Amino acid sequence: MKISEGQTQKILSGAVQCKFNQLGFNMLISRMERAYRSDSTSTVLAQCTQEINNFLAKYEKIMGKDYALIAQI
């Protein structure tokens, strides 16, 4: 599964509140939220989306419940 920039923006801007099951993914999102709040440009959004997609691809076997949350966004 890949996350879109629209989904990333909703998560990082706080438009939707998601409590993900994987601690590492929660930490990644927290770091991305801070980066996006300080610089909300399309470049930063694209970088965050790419980094999230890299994480999801790397840990896809343990991300099942979190995929379900992302799919609802």
Overall description:
The protein is an all-alpha fold and 73 residues long. It has helices at residues 5-13, 23-38, 42-58, 64-71. It has one domain (5-71). The protein has 4 helices and no strands.
Secondary-structure map:
Blueprint: H1 5-13, H2 23-38, H3 42-58, H4 64-71
Number of domains: 1
Mean pLDDT metric: 93
Contiguous helical run count: 4
Order of helices and strands: HHHH
Distance between the termini: 13 Å
Which ranges are low-confidence, i.e. pLDDT below 50, for 5 or more consecutive residues?
Answer: none
β-strand number = 0
Strand content: under 5%
Class inferred from helices and paired strands: mainly alpha
Rg, Cα atoms, Å? 11 Å
| Major β-sheet annotation | none
Which term fits the overall shape? Answer: globular
Helicity range: 55-70%
